[in-house]
Design goal:
The complex is a heterodimer of chains A (261) and B (243). With 261 residues, chain A is α/β, with parallel strands linked by helices. Chain A is built from 10 helices and 9 strands. In chain A, a hairpin with a 2-residue loop joins β1 and β2. In chain A, α6 crosses α7, α7 packs parallel to α8 and α9 crosses α10. Chain B has 243 residues and is mainly α. Chain B has a single domain, classed as Orthogonal Bundle (MetI-like fold). In chain B, α2 crosses α10 and α3 packs antiparallel against α4. The two termini of chain B are 24 Å apart. The chains are: A alpha/beta (261), B mainly alpha (243).
Chain lengths: 261, 243
C-alpha cells in the first residue's frame, strides 16, 4: 500500500461523497474517474495534505512524499523554464548559490539544509538534472523561455518536468490535461505514461477516454460512492494504451455508461 | 510631447487672457511673464529651497516606503496581526496630516525631521495597503504546489508571495511618489525657514504672489520628474515580475 483515503466528507451539512475506501497501489496508475463536483479533487487534496474546504472524517495515510501536478500548471511567470522546473529545490532552499545567481529571486543557500539534502539528492547536480528533464519533455530549445512565451501544452510539459524533478514515488495528477486540445492531450498522456513509469500515480480525471488509456485500475466516483471498475485490458510497459484500439474504445464507452448510470 | 506643449500653451493663453479680461491686479494673479521673471530673478534662492524640499522628499519616501513594505510583509505573515492593525491603519488615515504637522514640529523641532516625518506618514499608507493587497493574492495553484513541495512560510514569502506582489507594491510606490512632495510642503508650511513650502508661505505673507507661483511651478515640475523617475526605476528593476 502506498496511499489510502478511507472515510466520508461533508460540505457544511451536505455529504460530498458517500463513505469511500480508496488505495493507491505502488508502481501503478490508479484513475479516479467521475463527473465534476463529486469530490474527486477533494480526495486528491486530502492525500496531498492541502486545504479542501470540506469536512473530512476518516483516515488518510501515505507512506511516501508526494508530488502534485494540476490542471493549472501553476508556473511562476518570472522564472524561466529551468527556474520553474527547479522550483521545489528553490523553495526548500537546496539550490546551490551558483545556480541561484543565474536565476534571480533567491540569494544564498542554507548551508545546513543544503548539505543535508545533498546526500538525499541523486548524484547529478540540480541544474544538470533539470536540463536532462527539460530535454526529456522536449523543451531543450526553450530552457530559458518564460511561461508567457509557451503554449498551453508546453506549459504542461514544464509542469511535468517540475513534477519529475521532485522525484517522488507517489505522484498526484489533478486533471492535468483537461485544458488541452485533443491532440496535445493525447501526446501528454503518452509522454506522462513514459516518464512517470514505475511511480505510483493517482490520476483524477473526468474524461473516460483518459481513464481508458492510462488506468491500471479505474475507480468510478459517483454521488452514490466509489466503484472499482474491472480493467481487464493490459497496458503496454511505460506507455498509454493506443487511443484508437477497439478494446480501449470499448472500455471508454463502458466507463461512459457507468458515469451516466 | 506635442500634445503636452499645446496644452501648456493653451493654459498660458487662458491665464493671460483672464488677466486682460478681468483686469486682475498682479498681487491676486500675476501674469505668466511676471512669474517667469520672479523665477529667473530668484533662481538661486528657489534652487536652494528646492534642494531642501527634494532632500526631505527623498528621505521621507525611502523611509516611508521601507516602513510600509515591512509592515505589509509582517501583516502578510499573520492574519491575527492584520486583524489588529488594519482598523488602526484605517483610523490613522482619518487624521488629517495638516492637523498632525504642528504637533510633529513641536516634538521634532524646526529642522528637517518633522518634514520627513510628515512625508513618511503620507507615503507609508498607500505603500503598505497596496503591497498587502498583493501579498494576499498569490495564485492558489502556486501556493498549493509550494506546500506540497515542503516550503517553509518564510521561503514561500520570499520566493512566491513577495515577487508576485511586486506589481501591487509598484502601484503603491508610484502613487506615494506623487504624494510625497505634498507631505514635505505641509511640513514646511508649519515651521522652519527652509524649503519651497516655507518660501511660498513667506512670499505669500509679503504679497509676492509671483514668487509663490514660481515656487509652486518648481514644486510641480519637481514632483512630475520625481514620480516619473520612480516609475521608470521600478519598471527597469522589476520588469521580470510584470511591473
Amino acid at each position: 500500500m502506498t496511499a489510502l483515503v478511507r472515510g466520508q466528507a461533508w460540505v457544511g451539512e451536505t455529504p460530498l461523497f458517500a463513505p469511500i475506501d480508496l488505495t493507491v497501489a505502488p508502481g501503478r496508475w490508479t484513475c479516479l474517474l467521475g463527473p465534476s463536483g463529486v469530490g474527486k479533487s477533494t480526495i486528491l487534496r486530502l492525500l496531498a495534505g492541502l486545504e479542501t474546504g470540506a469536512r473530512f472524517q476518516g483516515e488518510v495515510t501515505r507512506d511516501a512524499p508526494v508530488a502534485l501536478m494540476a490542471q493549472d500548471p501553476g508556473l511562476i511567470p518570472w522564472l524561466d523554464v529551468a527556474g520553474n522546473v527547479t522550483l521545489g529545490a528553490r523553495l526548500r532552499g537546496t539550490l546551490p548559490a551558483s545556480f541561484l545567481s543565474k536565476y534571480p529571486g533567491g540569494r544564498e543557500t542554507d548551508p545546513v539544509e543544503g548539505s543535508v539534502s545533498r546526500g538525499a539528492e541523486p548524484p547529478l547536480d540540480p541544474a544538470a538534472r533539470a536540463a536532462h528533464l527539460i530535454e526529456a519533455v522536449g523543451l531543450a530549445d526553450r530552457i530559458h523561455h518564460l511561461p508567457a512565451n509557451l503554449s498551453g501544452g508546453q506549459r504542461q510539459r514544464v509542469a511535468l518536468a517540475r513534477t519529475l524533478f521532485e522525484d517522488r514515488s507517489l505522484v498526484l495528477l489533478d486533471e492535468p490535461f483537461s485544458a488541452l486540445d485533443a491532440r496535445t492531450r493525447a501526446q501528454m498522456q503518452d509522454l506522462s505514461a513514459r516518464l512517470l513509469h514505475r511511480r505510483s500515480i493517482l490520476l483524477v480525471t473526468h474524461d473516460p477516454a483518459e481513464a481508458a488509456r492510462l488506468g491500471d485500475r479505474i475507480l468510478l466516483l459517483r454521488e452514490t460512492g466509489l466503484t472499482d471498475w474491472p480493467v481487464l485490458l493490459p497496458r503496454p510497459e511505460a506507455a498509454a494504451r493506443p487511443f484508437d484500439a477497439p478494446e480501449v474504445l470499448a472500455l471508454q464507452a463502458e466507463l461512459m455508461r457507468g458515469m451516466m448510470a | 510631447m506635442r500634445t503636452a506643449l499645446a496644452l501648456i500653451l493653451t493654459v498660458l493663453c487662458l491665464w493671460q487672457g483672464l488677466i486682460w479680461l478681468a483686469q486682475m491686479p498682479p498681487f491676486l494673479l500675476p501674469s505668466p511673464r511676471a512669474v517667469a521673471e520672479a523665477l529667473w530673478l530668484n533662481r538661486a534662492e528657489i534652487t536652494r529651497h528646492a534642494g531642501f524640499t527634494l532632500a526631505e522628499v527623498l528621505l521621507g519616501f525611502v523611509l516611508g516606503a521601507a516602513l510600509g513594505a515591512a509592515l505589509a510583509i509582517a501583516m502578510g505573515f499573520s492574519d491575527r496581526l492584520t486583524g489588529v492593525l488594519r482598523p488602526i491603519l484605517t483610523f490613522s488615515q482619518t487624521i488629517p496630516v495638516f492637523a498632525l504637522a504642528p504637533i510633529l514640529t513641536l516634538w521634532l523641532g524646526f529642522g528637517m525631521a518633522p518634514k520627513i516625518a510628515v512625508t513618511v506618514l503620507i507615503v507609508f499608507f498607500p505603500v503598505a495597503s497596496a503591497f498587502l493587497d498583493g501579498l494576499m493574492r498569490t495564485p492558489q495553484a502556486a501556493l498549493d504546489l509550494a506546500q506540497v513541495m515542503g516550503a517553509s512560510r518564510i521561503r514561500i514569502m520570499r520566493h512566491l508571495r513577495i515577487p508576485a506582489a511586486l506589481p501591487s507594491l509598484a502601484t503603491g510606490l508610484r502613487l506615494a511618489a506623487v504624494y510625497a512632495p505634498i507631505g514635505a510642503v505641509i511640513g514646511e508650511w508649519v515651521g522652519g525657514a527652509r524649503g519651497l513650502g516655507a518660501l511660498m508661505i513667506h512670499a505669500n505673507g509679503r504679497m509676492k504672489t509671483d514668487l509663490v507661483f514660481a515656487a509652486l511651478l518648481v514644486l510641480s515640475v519637481m514632483t512630475v520628474i520625481f514620480a516619473r523617475a520612480v516609475a521608470l526605476a521600478l519598471h527597469r528593476a522589476w520588469r521580470r515580475y510584470g511591473v
